Amino acid sequence: MKISILIMNAYGMGGTIRATLNLADELAKRHEVEVVSVFRHRDRPFLPYSDRVTLSSLVDLRPDSKKWWRVGLSSRIKKPSTLMHPDERAYDNFNAESDRALQRYLAGLRTDVLITTRAGLNIAAARLARDGVTLIGQEHLHFGAHKPGILEEIRTWYPKLDAVITLTDADHTEYARMLDGHPTRVRTIGNGLPEGPRPQSRLENPVVLAAGRLVKVKGYDRLLDAFAKVIEKRPEWRLRIYGNGTHADKLSRQARRLGLHNNVAFMGPTSDIEGELAKASIHVITSRFEGFGMTIVEAFAAGVPVVSFDCPQGPREIITSGEDGVLVPDGDIDAFADALLSLMDDPERTRRLAENGRRTAERYRISEVADRWDEVFAALRHERTA
């Protein structure tokens, strides 16, 4: 069976990209798999990917690519997208050229299964994909994070999909309610963790780690406020934040204003988050919402306990508070600082949480995740032939 996975930009960094490449690699052990990136802006992906997977792109943004037609491309890139709804959270990334490329790709699909990985692409597939292709829309955002306009399009077009895959049970409930009465199947399949040995933290370094895009939704402004309270009592601890994004300068100014210049380091993006986690003793999630929270599972697998705000939806479905991590009431800065201090002051508790976290991570082995995808493929294929 041939499986195609359509993603906005496989060449960047982020949880959706990492999870997609991990899934593609595992599925490629069982099927013919290609990842199709709408955009390409560098020669090779930032994150590693398997040579079992075919990778291609629809719009090449590299400065030296196909110069002979870039004049025409430039004019189309400057025109806004009409295929994507303005309430699609990544709307500004799309344009008239990506519309044209997507329409051409979807109309000429030569695959058995198409998996799309965000609302705008899910809707585009439902509208434009060639008949005969099994369409599966994967949701990496939680239901409540969608803006009203895109949510209305979701209600209109998702019934045209064969299946919707959510990352959490809470989102499954929302989509199942919305799609009640339609033939579209709704299933929950979390992100998977590649198998094999990985570096382990010794829990000896006074380092707290955060990782993700430097954007408002990740809540690093809340993290800096909490960490400022922590270093009043534990000035030897350091916070390392990995990632880049539009809020980088704003966060740097906030860190200086809070007097954190000696305690906080903005490390930039990394392609080896597992190696960096192994150098830390606590991992933190301060997001305003999370679709899943892949770094939680990665931290658990590295033997690092997690302190997270109990934001919608992902963390509460992965972390069992007090057993393998700590959930803090969403937005409570003082409680978050207290939770960090509690672990810093209790190495035995930290080690117990870390050991339990390793066991939790076992539930997210990529082979088991791929098994659940195969069950969906089989069920949909059976329905088509029945």
UniProtKB/TrEMBL annotation:
The keyword Transcription regulation does not apply. Keywords: Glycosyltransferase, Transferase. Residues 14-192 form the Glycosyltransferase subfamily 4-like N-terminal domain. It comes from the Bacteria. Residues 202-359 form the Glycosyl transferase family domain. Gene3D superfamilies: Glycogen Phosphorylase B (3.40.50.2000). The keyword Transferase applies. InterPro entries: Glyco_trans_1, Glyco_trans_4-like_N. This is Glycosyltransferase family 4 protein. It comes from Actinoallomurus liliacearum. The lineage of its organism: Bacteria, Bacillati, Actinomycetota, Actinomycetes, Streptosporangiales.
